[in-house]
Amino acid sequence: RGTALQALFKISYSCSKVGDPRPGQPYKGGNFCAFLPENREGLKTAVLLEKAFEHGLTFQIKSCNGEERVTWGLIPHKTSCDGGKARNGYPDAQYLQEVGTVL
Question: Which sequence ranges form a coiled-coil region, renumbered to this chain (predicted)?
Fold first, then answer.
């Protein structure tokens, strides 16, 4: 298995804003981890993912059982280094192309 870049996101508890499901309501944060291959395409994708994060596109707030919480947004992320596509991990030969198209 090759080396991987690992991105860690720690989202704090806060209040939602206009455009979220329930503006002004508190939401539950969480810790999120994603992986990219450590190669030229992986580094290029990391730069694009960083821009998406800076523009607020990486996460969204969803209501679940009456509680607002942060979840992954529409941009696909690999949350495991293994397990294949079925487990949101590698190997997945199409991932970098697919995420590049979304970004």
Answer: none
Q: Distance between CA atoms of 74 and 9, rounded to whole angstroms?
A: 16
pLDDT surpasses 80 at 12 = no
pLDDT per residue as tens digits for the range 81-101:
889 888 888 889 999 999 999
Interval 35-49: pLDDT, tens: 999 899 999 999 999
Question: Taking Cα atoms as reference points, which of 103, 16, 95, 101 lies closest to residue 60?
Answer: 16
What's the longest Cα–Cα distance across the chain? Answer: 45
Domains in the chain and their CATH numbers? Answer: 8-102 (3.30.390.130)
The residues near 98 (Cβ < 8 Å, ≥ 6 apart) are 76
